[in-house]
Amino acid sequence: MESQIKIQDIMKYLPHRYPFLMVDRILELEPEKKVVALKNVTINEPFFQGHFPGEPVMPGVLILEAIAQAGGVLAAQSIAEEELENSVIYFMAIDKARFRQPVVPGDQLIFKIEMIKRRAKTFKMAGKAFVEDKLVTEAEMMAVFGEKS
């Protein structure tokens, strides 16, 4: 099991950058098995200006994006390093998405993603997001590594 991965190393695996990088730290990682990651949700997030004024709620699609990004790190750690050099990971599909509770400024999201299936450079994963041990969002997703353009 790999130790924690900090933001500088997360950016080596994901093409996303501020304000769209949604994973602050990887807490646990077992290639081809699981990843546990976190995101600190702050009032400084740009989406809170319009979602919703006076009642800030993190958009559900962005929670799903964060789950997918954590899964992207898991996938990147599950393929050979030479395969990563000219690749970028793409989100392919999402199924069984459910939103259980709003996420608001001050929350810390913990993502738990498990690998369901892998076929070459295509990955199917199940992800869950928690705030204080309460399930707030869950989904299954697929991603694939493609060539950089």
Q: What's the short story on this structure?
A:
Helix content is 19%, strand content 42%. By secondary structure, it is α+β, with helices and mostly antiparallel strands.
Q: Can you identify the CATH class?
A: Alpha Beta
Beta strand count: 6
Mean pLDDT: 95
- What shape does the CA trace take? globular
CATH topology label: Thiol Ester Dehydrase, Chain A
Q: What is the CATH H-level superfamily?
A: Hotdog Thioesterase
Strand % is: 35-45%
Low-confidence parts: none
Number of helical regions: 3
The CATH architecture designation is: Roll
- Order of strands in the sheet with most strands: 1-2-4-5-6-3
- The helix/strand order is HEEHHEEEE
- Rg result: 15 Å
How many structural units, i.e. domains? 1
**Helical percent range?**
10-25%
Major sheet details = 6 strands, antiparallel
Helix-strand category: alpha+beta
**First and last CA, distance:** 33 Å
Keywords:
Thiol Ester Dehydrase, Chain A; six-stranded antiparallel β-sheet; 149 residues; globular; 19% helix; alpha+beta; 42% strand
How would you characterize the overall build of this protein?
The chain is of the alpha+beta class. It has a single domain (7-147), classed as Hotdog Thioesterase (Thiol Ester Dehydrase, Chain A, Roll), CATH 3.10.129. It is 19% helix and 42% strand. The protein has three helices and six strands, in the order αββααββββ. The protein has helices spanning 7-13, 60-76, 81-84; strands at 25-30, 34-40, 87-99, 108-119, 122-131, 134-147. Strands 1-2-4-5-6-3 form a six-stranded antiparallel β-sheet, with helices on one face. The longest helix has 17 residues, at 60-76. It starts with 6 loop residues before the first helix and ends with a strand. The model has no long low-confidence stretch (mean pLDDT 95).
